[in-house]
Protein backbone atom coordinates (compact mmCIF):
# COMPACT_ATOMS: atom_id res chain seq x y z
CA UNK A 1 0.00 0.00 0.00
CA UNK A 2 2.79 2.43 0.92
CA UNK A 3 4.52 1.76 -2.42
CA UNK A 4 1.30 2.57 -4.29
CA UNK A 5 0.86 5.79 -2.34
CA UNK A 6 4.51 6.71 -2.89
CA UNK A 7 4.24 6.02 -6.62
CA UNK A 8 1.03 8.02 -6.95
CA UNK A 9 2.00 11.10 -4.93
CA UNK A 10 5.81 11.25 -5.02
CA UNK A 11 6.89 10.00 -8.48
CA UNK A 12 6.26 11.14 -12.05
CA UNK A 13 4.84 8.21 -14.05
CA UNK A 14 3.16 9.55 -17.16
CA UNK A 15 1.18 12.56 -18.34
CA UNK A 16 -2.10 12.06 -16.50
CA UNK A 17 -0.58 10.88 -13.22
CA UNK A 18 2.10 13.61 -13.20
CA UNK A 19 -0.46 16.37 -13.81
CA UNK A 20 -2.71 14.81 -11.17
CA UNK A 21 0.15 14.49 -8.66
CA UNK A 22 1.24 18.06 -9.20
CA UNK A 23 -2.35 19.28 -9.02
CA UNK A 24 -2.85 17.43 -5.75
CA UNK A 25 0.24 18.93 -4.14
CA UNK A 26 -0.47 22.41 -5.44
CA UNK A 27 -3.97 22.06 -4.03
CA UNK A 28 -2.56 21.00 -0.67
CA UNK A 29 -0.02 23.81 -0.89
CA UNK A 30 -2.30 26.65 -1.88
CA UNK A 31 -5.46 25.74 -0.05
CA UNK A 32 -3.64 24.42 3.00
CA UNK A 33 -1.22 27.33 3.13
CA UNK A 34 -3.82 29.97 2.36
CA UNK A 35 -6.24 28.43 4.82
CA UNK A 36 -3.60 29.01 7.49
CA UNK A 37 -3.12 32.58 6.28
CA UNK A 38 -6.90 33.04 6.08
CA UNK A 39 -7.07 32.42 9.84
CA UNK A 40 -4.72 35.37 10.32
CA UNK A 41 -6.59 37.49 7.75
CA UNK A 42 -9.93 36.93 9.47
CA UNK A 43 -8.44 37.53 12.91
CA UNK A 44 -6.65 40.69 11.77
CA UNK A 45 -9.65 42.01 9.82
CA UNK A 46 -11.90 41.61 12.86
CA UNK A 47 -9.27 43.03 15.24
CA UNK A 48 -8.17 46.02 13.13
CA UNK A 49 -11.60 46.77 11.66
CA UNK A 50 -12.36 47.67 8.06
CA UNK A 51 -10.25 50.83 8.30
CA UNK A 52 -7.04 49.15 9.56
CA UNK A 53 -7.46 46.18 7.27
CA UNK A 54 -8.01 48.60 4.40
CA UNK A 55 -4.68 50.31 5.08
CA UNK A 56 -2.80 47.00 4.95
CA UNK A 57 -4.61 45.85 1.79
CA UNK A 58 -3.99 49.18 0.09
CA UNK A 59 -0.27 49.02 0.88
CA UNK A 60 0.10 45.51 -0.53
CA UNK A 61 -1.85 46.43 -3.68
CA UNK A 62 0.05 49.65 -4.29
CA UNK A 63 3.48 48.04 -3.93
CA UNK A 64 2.46 45.12 -6.18
CA UNK A 65 1.22 47.59 -8.80
CA UNK A 66 4.37 49.73 -8.85
CA UNK A 67 6.84 46.83 -8.88
CA UNK A 68 4.93 45.02 -11.64
CA UNK A 69 6.46 47.52 -14.08
CA UNK A 70 9.92 46.26 -13.12
CA UNK A 71 9.14 42.58 -13.68
CA UNK A 72 9.73 41.35 -17.23
CA UNK A 73 7.52 38.30 -16.69
CA UNK A 74 10.17 35.58 -16.58
CA UNK A 75 8.42 33.08 -14.29
CA UNK A 76 6.58 31.17 -17.01
CA UNK A 77 9.55 31.55 -19.35
CA UNK A 78 11.73 29.97 -16.65
CA UNK A 79 9.46 26.91 -16.42
CA UNK A 80 9.14 26.52 -20.18
CA UNK A 81 12.82 26.97 -21.02
CA UNK A 82 14.21 24.79 -18.24
CA UNK A 83 11.86 22.00 -19.31
CA UNK A 84 13.09 22.35 -22.89
CA UNK A 85 16.77 22.85 -22.03
CA UNK A 86 19.06 20.15 -23.41
CA UNK A 87 21.72 19.39 -20.85
CA UNK A 88 22.69 20.74 -17.48
CA UNK A 89 24.80 23.58 -18.87
CA UNK A 90 21.90 25.03 -20.85
CA UNK A 91 19.62 24.76 -17.85
CA UNK A 92 22.10 26.57 -15.60
CA UNK A 93 22.38 29.41 -18.12
CA UNK A 94 18.61 29.86 -18.05
CA UNK A 95 18.49 29.82 -14.24
CA UNK A 96 21.43 32.19 -13.77
CA UNK A 97 20.30 34.69 -16.39
CA UNK A 98 16.73 34.68 -15.10
CA UNK A 99 17.86 35.12 -11.49
CA UNK A 100 20.19 38.05 -12.18
CA UNK A 101 17.63 39.74 -14.43
CA UNK A 102 14.92 39.37 -11.82
CA UNK A 103 17.23 40.73 -9.11
CA UNK A 104 17.96 43.87 -11.15
CA UNK A 105 14.24 44.35 -11.80
CA UNK A 106 13.49 43.95 -8.11
CA UNK A 107 16.07 46.59 -7.18
CA UNK A 108 14.52 49.07 -9.60
CA UNK A 109 11.11 48.22 -8.21
CA UNK A 110 12.20 48.92 -4.65
CA UNK A 111 13.56 52.32 -5.65
CA UNK A 112 10.26 53.08 -7.37
CA UNK A 113 8.30 52.14 -4.26
CA UNK A 114 10.48 54.30 -2.00
CA UNK A 115 10.34 57.39 -4.17
CA UNK A 116 6.95 57.13 -5.86
CA UNK A 117 4.56 55.62 -3.31
CA UNK A 118 4.63 58.49 -0.76
CA UNK A 119 3.57 60.90 -3.52
CA UNK A 120 0.74 58.90 -5.12
CA UNK A 121 -1.10 57.36 -2.17
CA UNK A 122 -4.20 59.02 -0.76
CA UNK A 123 -4.17 56.69 2.25
CA UNK A 124 -1.35 58.34 4.20
CA UNK A 125 -1.26 55.64 6.89
CA UNK A 126 0.40 53.40 4.27
CA UNK A 127 3.69 55.28 4.69
CA UNK A 128 4.07 53.93 8.23
CA UNK A 129 4.42 50.33 7.02
CA UNK A 130 6.11 50.92 3.68
CA UNK A 131 9.57 49.83 4.85
CA UNK A 132 8.23 46.52 6.18
CA UNK A 133 6.20 45.86 3.03
CA UNK A 134 9.36 46.25 0.94
CA UNK A 135 10.94 43.35 2.82
CA UNK A 136 7.79 41.30 2.20
CA UNK A 137 8.24 42.06 -1.49
CA UNK A 138 11.91 41.01 -1.49
CA UNK A 139 11.32 37.73 0.32
CA UNK A 140 8.26 36.89 -1.79
CA UNK A 141 10.08 37.59 -5.06
CA UNK A 142 13.05 35.31 -4.37
CA UNK A 143 10.90 32.59 -2.78
CA UNK A 144 8.64 32.64 -5.84
CA UNK A 145 11.70 32.26 -8.07
CA UNK A 146 12.65 29.14 -6.13
CA UNK A 147 9.10 27.81 -6.46
CA UNK A 148 9.30 28.19 -10.24
CA UNK A 149 12.47 26.09 -10.27
CA UNK A 150 10.58 23.45 -8.32
CA UNK A 151 7.72 23.59 -10.83
CA UNK A 152 10.13 23.11 -13.71
CA UNK A 153 11.32 19.96 -11.93
CA UNK A 154 7.65 18.94 -11.55
CA UNK A 155 8.23 18.40 -7.83
CA UNK A 156 5.20 20.25 -6.50
CA UNK A 157 5.31 18.15 -3.33
CA UNK A 158 8.39 20.21 -2.36
CA UNK A 159 6.52 23.44 -3.01
CA UNK A 160 3.59 22.25 -0.90
CA UNK A 161 5.80 21.64 2.15
CA UNK A 162 7.59 24.98 1.74
CA UNK A 163 4.44 27.03 1.21
CA UNK A 164 2.71 25.51 4.22
CA UNK A 165 5.83 26.13 6.32
CA UNK A 166 5.83 29.77 5.23
CA UNK A 167 2.19 30.27 6.16
CA UNK A 168 2.55 28.47 9.48
CA UNK A 169 5.31 30.97 10.29
CA UNK A 170 3.18 33.94 9.16
CA UNK A 171 0.22 32.75 11.23
CA UNK A 172 2.30 32.09 14.34
CA UNK A 173 4.15 35.41 14.24
CA UNK A 174 0.95 37.23 13.30
CA UNK A 175 -1.02 35.98 16.29
CA UNK A 176 1.85 36.74 18.68
CA UNK A 177 2.54 40.22 17.30
CA UNK A 178 -1.14 41.21 17.18
CA UNK A 179 -1.63 40.04 20.75
CA UNK A 180 1.29 42.23 21.78
CA UNK A 181 0.17 45.21 19.69
CA UNK A 182 -3.12 45.58 17.81
CA UNK A 183 -1.67 47.52 14.89
CA UNK A 184 -1.17 47.38 11.13
CA UNK A 185 2.59 47.43 11.75
CA UNK A 186 2.37 44.18 13.73
CA UNK A 187 0.50 42.48 10.88
CA UNK A 188 3.02 43.67 8.27
CA UNK A 189 5.96 42.52 10.41
CA UNK A 190 4.50 39.02 10.77
CA UNK A 191 4.27 38.72 6.98
CA UNK A 192 7.90 39.81 6.56
CA UNK A 193 9.33 37.38 9.13
CA UNK A 194 7.17 34.47 7.97
CA UNK A 195 8.20 35.04 4.35
CA UNK A 196 11.87 35.09 5.38
CA UNK A 197 11.45 31.65 6.98
CA UNK A 198 9.98 30.29 3.75
CA UNK A 199 12.75 31.86 1.65
CA UNK A 200 15.54 30.32 3.73
CA UNK A 201 13.92 26.88 3.64
CA UNK A 202 13.35 27.07 -0.13
CA UNK A 203 16.95 27.81 -1.01
CA UNK A 204 18.24 25.23 1.45
CA UNK A 205 16.13 22.55 -0.29
CA UNK A 206 17.29 23.71 -3.75
CA UNK A 207 20.96 24.06 -2.83
CA UNK A 208 21.95 21.20 -5.19
CA UNK A 209 20.13 22.85 -8.10
CA UNK A 210 21.56 26.35 -7.72
CA UNK A 211 25.20 25.81 -8.55
CA UNK A 212 26.62 28.70 -10.56
CA UNK A 213 23.52 30.83 -10.06
CA UNK A 214 25.63 33.98 -10.25
CA UNK A 215 28.30 32.69 -12.67
CA UNK A 216 26.40 31.45 -15.71
CA UNK A 217 24.83 34.64 -16.96
CA UNK A 218 24.47 34.56 -20.74
CA UNK A 219 23.80 37.53 -23.02
CA UNK A 220 22.26 35.26 -25.66
CA UNK A 221 19.96 33.73 -23.03
CA UNK A 222 19.05 37.21 -21.81
CA UNK A 223 18.13 38.17 -25.37
CA UNK A 224 15.99 35.04 -25.67
CA UNK A 225 14.25 35.84 -22.37
CA UNK A 226 13.49 39.40 -23.45
CA UNK A 227 12.25 38.36 -26.89
CA UNK A 228 10.04 35.66 -25.38
CA UNK A 229 8.97 37.45 -22.24
CA UNK A 230 8.21 41.03 -23.25
CA UNK A 231 4.69 40.24 -24.52
CA UNK A 232 4.10 38.14 -21.45
CA UNK A 233 5.54 40.91 -19.26
CA UNK A 234 3.12 43.45 -20.69
CA UNK A 235 0.31 40.98 -20.18
CA UNK A 236 1.46 40.40 -16.60
CA UNK A 237 1.66 44.14 -15.87
CA UNK A 238 -1.84 44.68 -17.14
CA UNK A 239 -2.98 41.61 -15.24
CA UNK A 240 -1.57 43.02 -11.99
CA UNK A 241 -3.21 46.32 -12.87
CA UNK A 242 -6.54 44.56 -13.29
CA UNK A 243 -6.20 42.70 -9.98
CA UNK A 244 -5.15 45.80 -8.03
CA UNK A 245 -6.92 48.59 -9.91
CA UNK A 246 -10.11 48.16 -7.92
CA UNK A 247 -8.36 48.58 -4.57
CA UNK A 248 -6.27 51.52 -5.79
CA UNK A 249 -9.16 53.40 -7.37
CA UNK A 250 -11.43 52.77 -4.38
CA UNK A 251 -8.64 54.17 -2.19
CA UNK A 252 -8.38 57.27 -4.40
CA UNK A 253 -12.11 57.90 -4.68
CA UNK A 254 -13.41 56.59 -1.37
CA UNK A 255 -11.83 55.72 2.00
CA UNK A 256 -9.67 53.12 3.72
CA UNK A 257 -12.87 51.65 5.20
CA UNK A 258 -14.28 51.06 1.71
CA UNK A 259 -10.97 49.45 0.75
CA UNK A 260 -11.26 47.14 3.75
CA UNK A 261 -14.83 46.08 2.93
CA UNK A 262 -14.00 45.40 -0.71
CA UNK A 263 -10.73 43.64 0.11
CA UNK A 264 -12.52 41.27 2.51
CA UNK A 265 -14.93 40.20 -0.22
CA UNK A 266 -12.14 40.01 -2.78
CA UNK A 267 -9.98 37.79 -0.54
CA UNK A 268 -12.50 34.95 -0.56
CA UNK A 269 -12.91 35.09 -4.34
CA UNK A 270 -9.16 35.19 -4.94
CA UNK A 271 -8.81 32.07 -2.81
CA UNK A 272 -11.26 30.32 -5.13
CA UNK A 273 -9.27 31.54 -8.14
CA UNK A 274 -6.58 29.12 -6.98
CA UNK A 275 -8.52 26.15 -8.38
CA UNK A 276 -7.85 26.86 -12.10
CA UNK A 277 -4.46 28.39 -11.28
CA UNK A 278 -3.34 25.14 -9.66
CA UNK A 279 -4.57 23.07 -12.60
CA UNK A 280 -2.94 25.45 -15.07
CA UNK A 281 0.44 25.47 -13.30
CA UNK A 282 0.40 21.69 -13.01
CA UNK A 283 -0.38 21.28 -16.70
CA UNK A 284 2.07 23.88 -18.09
CA UNK A 285 5.02 21.46 -18.44
CA UNK A 286 2.68 19.00 -20.21
CA UNK A 287 1.38 21.77 -22.49
CA UNK A 288 4.97 22.70 -23.35
CA UNK A 289 5.78 19.12 -24.37
CA UNK A 290 2.63 18.60 -26.47
CA UNK A 291 2.38 21.95 -28.27
CA UNK A 292 3.00 21.59 -32.02
CA UNK A 293 4.05 17.96 -31.46
CA UNK A 294 0.82 16.12 -30.64
CA UNK A 295 -2.07 18.51 -31.19
CA UNK A 296 -4.70 15.79 -31.01
CA UNK A 297 -3.57 14.76 -27.56
CA UNK A 298 -3.32 18.42 -26.57
CA UNK A 299 -6.93 18.92 -27.66
CA UNK A 300 -8.14 16.06 -25.47
CA UNK A 301 -6.17 17.36 -22.48
CA UNK A 302 -7.55 20.90 -22.95
CA UNK A 303 -11.12 19.64 -23.23
CA UNK A 304 -10.80 17.72 -19.99
CA UNK A 305 -9.08 20.49 -18.06
CA UNK A 306 -11.52 23.22 -19.12
CA UNK A 307 -14.48 20.93 -18.47
CA UNK A 308 -13.12 20.14 -14.99
CA UNK A 309 -12.70 23.84 -14.17
CA UNK A 310 -16.29 24.48 -15.19
CA UNK A 311 -17.46 21.49 -13.16
CA UNK A 312 -15.93 23.16 -10.11
CA UNK A 313 -16.66 26.78 -11.04
CA UNK A 314 -20.35 26.70 -11.98
CA UNK A 315 -21.67 25.36 -8.65
CA UNK A 316 -19.30 27.63 -6.67
CA UNK A 317 -20.55 30.70 -8.56
CA UNK A 318 -24.21 29.81 -8.08
CA UNK A 319 -23.82 28.80 -4.45
CA UNK A 320 -21.65 31.81 -3.63
CA UNK A 321 -24.16 34.24 -5.10
CA UNK A 322 -27.05 32.70 -3.15
CA UNK A 323 -25.20 32.29 0.15
CA UNK A 324 -22.88 35.32 -0.06
CA UNK A 325 -24.64 37.27 2.68
CA UNK A 326 -24.53 34.72 5.50
CA UNK A 327 -21.04 33.62 4.42
CA UNK A 328 -19.52 37.13 4.73
CA UNK A 329 -21.20 37.67 8.09
CA UNK A 330 -19.96 34.32 9.37
CA UNK A 331 -16.34 34.93 8.33
CA UNK A 332 -15.79 38.64 8.96
CA UNK A 333 -18.69 39.70 11.17
CA UNK A 334 -21.44 42.29 10.98
CA UNK A 335 -18.94 45.13 10.51
CA UNK A 336 -18.31 43.85 6.95
CA UNK A 337 -21.96 43.59 5.88
CA UNK A 338 -21.36 46.46 3.47
CA UNK A 339 -19.18 44.16 1.37
CA UNK A 340 -21.89 41.55 0.72
CA UNK A 341 -23.16 42.93 -2.62
CA UNK A 342 -19.58 43.20 -3.90
CA UNK A 343 -18.89 39.58 -2.94
CA UNK A 344 -22.04 38.32 -4.67
CA UNK A 345 -20.96 39.98 -7.91
CA UNK A 346 -17.27 39.09 -7.64
CA UNK A 347 -18.05 35.41 -7.07
CA UNK A 348 -19.64 35.29 -10.53
CA UNK A 349 -16.31 36.29 -12.12
CA UNK A 350 -14.99 32.79 -11.52
CA UNK A 351 -17.06 31.69 -14.53
CA UNK A 352 -14.71 33.84 -16.60
CA UNK A 353 -11.49 33.36 -14.64
CA UNK A 354 -11.62 29.55 -14.48
CA UNK A 355 -11.48 28.85 -18.24
CA UNK A 356 -9.34 31.93 -18.96
CA UNK A 357 -6.42 30.54 -16.94
CA UNK A 358 -6.38 27.32 -18.99
CA UNK A 359 -6.76 29.19 -22.28
CA UNK A 360 -3.81 31.44 -21.38
CA UNK A 361 -1.64 28.40 -20.68
CA UNK A 362 -2.63 26.84 -23.99
CA UNK A 363 -1.82 30.01 -25.94
CA UNK A 364 1.48 30.47 -24.11
CA UNK A 365 2.57 26.88 -24.73
CA UNK A 366 2.21 27.46 -28.47
CA UNK A 367 4.54 30.46 -28.11
CA UNK A 368 1.74 32.84 -29.08
CA UNK A 369 1.97 34.96 -25.96
CA UNK A 370 1.92 38.12 -28.03
CA UNK A 371 -1.78 37.56 -28.54
CA UNK A 372 -2.21 37.79 -24.77
CA UNK A 373 -1.20 41.45 -24.87
CA UNK A 374 -4.36 42.64 -26.59
CA UNK A 375 -6.43 40.64 -24.14
CA UNK A 376 -4.68 42.27 -21.19
CA UNK A 377 -5.08 45.71 -22.75
CA UNK A 378 -8.79 45.10 -23.24
CA UNK A 379 -9.32 43.76 -19.71
CA UNK A 380 -7.17 46.34 -17.92
CA UNK A 381 -8.51 49.33 -19.84
CA UNK A 382 -12.15 48.29 -19.48
CA UNK A 383 -11.74 47.57 -15.78
CA UNK A 384 -10.27 51.02 -15.09
CA UNK A 385 -12.83 52.75 -17.31
CA UNK A 386 -15.77 50.97 -15.68
CA UNK A 387 -14.29 51.67 -12.22
CA UNK A 388 -14.19 55.42 -12.79
CA UNK A 389 -17.68 55.36 -14.29
CA UNK A 390 -19.34 53.22 -11.64
CA UNK A 391 -17.54 53.76 -8.30
CA UNK A 392 -18.60 57.42 -7.87
CA UNK A 393 -22.27 56.35 -8.18
CA UNK A 394 -22.36 52.80 -6.80
CA UNK A 395 -19.35 52.71 -4.48
CA UNK A 396 -17.58 49.37 -4.04
CA UNK A 397 -20.50 47.54 -5.67
CA UNK A 398 -19.73 49.50 -8.84
CA UNK A 399 -16.14 48.28 -8.67
CA UNK A 400 -17.33 44.66 -8.48
CA UNK A 401 -19.56 45.22 -11.51
CA UNK A 402 -16.60 46.74 -13.38
CA UNK A 403 -14.47 43.65 -12.67
CA UNK A 404 -17.29 41.33 -13.73
CA UNK A 405 -17.80 43.06 -17.09
CA UNK A 406 -14.07 43.35 -17.86
CA UNK A 407 -13.30 39.72 -17.05
CA UNK A 408 -16.13 38.31 -19.15
CA UNK A 409 -15.19 40.38 -22.18
CA UNK A 410 -11.56 39.31 -21.72
CA UNK A 411 -12.49 35.63 -21.35
CA UNK A 412 -14.50 35.64 -24.59
CA UNK A 413 -11.51 37.04 -26.45
CA UNK A 414 -9.19 34.40 -24.95
CA UNK A 415 -11.64 31.65 -25.86
CA UNK A 416 -11.68 32.83 -29.47
CA UNK A 417 -7.87 32.91 -29.67
CA UNK A 418 -7.54 29.51 -27.98
CA UNK A 419 -9.95 27.89 -30.44
CA UNK A 420 -7.96 29.28 -33.34
CA UNK A 421 -4.86 27.67 -31.79
CA UNK A 422 -6.38 24.23 -31.16
CA UNK A 423 -9.91 23.31 -32.28
CA UNK A 424 -11.25 21.96 -29.00
CA UNK A 425 -14.85 21.72 -27.82
CA UNK A 426 -16.11 22.19 -24.26
CA UNK A 427 -19.70 23.40 -23.90
CA UNK A 428 -21.30 20.34 -25.55
CA UNK A 429 -19.88 18.21 -22.74
CA UNK A 430 -21.28 20.25 -19.84
CA UNK A 431 -24.98 19.33 -20.08
CA UNK A 432 -24.95 17.23 -16.92
CA UNK A 433 -22.96 19.87 -15.04
CA UNK A 434 -25.56 22.53 -15.88
CA UNK A 435 -28.42 20.29 -14.76
CA UNK A 436 -26.74 19.35 -11.48
CA UNK A 437 -25.75 22.95 -10.73
CA UNK A 438 -29.31 24.20 -11.35
CA UNK A 439 -30.71 21.62 -8.93
CA UNK A 440 -28.05 22.47 -6.37
CA UNK A 441 -28.86 26.18 -6.65
CA UNK A 442 -32.55 25.52 -6.00
CA UNK A 443 -31.71 23.49 -2.90
CA UNK A 444 -29.31 26.14 -1.58
CA UNK A 445 -31.87 28.90 -2.11
CA UNK A 446 -34.61 26.95 -0.35
CA UNK A 447 -32.44 26.03 2.63
CA UNK A 448 -31.21 29.62 2.95
CA UNK A 449 -34.77 30.93 2.90
CA UNK A 450 -35.60 28.43 5.64
CA UNK A 451 -32.80 29.91 7.79
CA UNK A 452 -30.48 26.89 7.80
CA UNK A 453 -26.95 27.60 9.03
CA UNK A 454 -24.74 28.46 6.03
CA UNK A 455 -22.06 25.79 6.48
CA UNK A 456 -24.69 23.06 6.77
CA UNK A 457 -26.38 24.48 3.69
CA UNK A 458 -23.10 24.34 1.76
CA UNK A 459 -22.54 20.71 2.78
CA UNK A 460 -26.05 19.60 1.77
CA UNK A 461 -26.07 21.56 -1.50
CA UNK A 462 -22.62 20.23 -2.43
CA UNK A 463 -23.76 16.68 -1.75
CA UNK A 464 -26.80 17.22 -3.97
CA UNK A 465 -24.57 18.45 -6.83
CA UNK A 466 -22.14 15.53 -6.55
CA UNK A 467 -24.96 13.01 -6.17
CA UNK A 468 -26.71 14.17 -9.33
CA UNK A 469 -23.46 13.95 -11.31
CA UNK A 470 -22.97 10.37 -10.10
CA UNK A 471 -26.59 9.52 -10.92
CA UNK A 472 -26.23 10.96 -14.44
CA UNK A 473 -22.90 9.12 -14.88
CA UNK A 474 -20.94 12.25 -15.66
CA UNK A 475 -17.82 11.21 -17.68
CA UNK A 476 -15.65 13.73 -15.83
CA UNK A 477 -16.05 11.60 -12.71
CA UNK A 478 -14.67 8.63 -14.64
CA UNK A 479 -11.77 10.80 -15.77
CA UNK A 480 -10.97 11.71 -12.17
CA UNK A 481 -10.96 8.02 -11.30
CA UNK A 482 -8.57 7.31 -14.19
CA UNK A 483 -6.15 9.80 -12.66
CA UNK A 484 -5.55 7.22 -9.96
CA UNK A 485 -4.43 4.74 -12.64
CA UNK A 486 -1.11 5.95 -14.06
CA UNK A 487 -1.13 3.03 -16.54
CA UNK A 488 -4.45 4.10 -18.12
CA UNK A 489 -3.96 4.94 -21.83
CA UNK A 490 -4.24 8.51 -23.02
CA UNK A 491 -6.87 7.35 -25.52
CA UNK A 492 -9.26 7.01 -22.59
CA UNK A 493 -9.42 10.79 -22.74
CA UNK A 494 -11.49 10.57 -25.92
CA UNK A 495 -14.52 12.84 -25.53
CA UNK A 496 -18.00 11.49 -24.83
CA UNK A 497 -20.73 12.09 -27.35
CA UNK A 498 -21.84 15.75 -27.01
CA UNK A 499 -25.22 16.51 -25.52
CA UNK A 500 -25.97 12.99 -24.32
CA UNK A 501 -27.26 12.55 -20.75
What key attributes describe this structure?
501 residues; 80% helix
Provide the gyration radius in Å: 22 Å
Total helical segments: 18
Helix content: over 70%
Q: Summarize the biggest pleated sheet.
A: none
- As for the number of domains, it is 1
Strand-and-helix sequence, N→C? HHHHHHHHHHHHHHHHHH
Distance between the termini: 36 Å
Classify the beta-strand content into a percent band.
Answer: under 5%
The geometry reads as: globular
Count the beta strands: 0
Q: What are the segments in which pLDDT stays under 50 over at least 5 consecutive residues?
A: 481-501
Nearest-integer average pLDDT: 80
In terms of structural class, how would the helical and strand content be classed? mainly alpha
What report would you give on this structure?
This protein has one domain. It is built from 18 helices and no strands. The chain is an all-alpha fold and 501 residues long. Helix 5 (130-152) packs parallel to helix 7 (184-205).
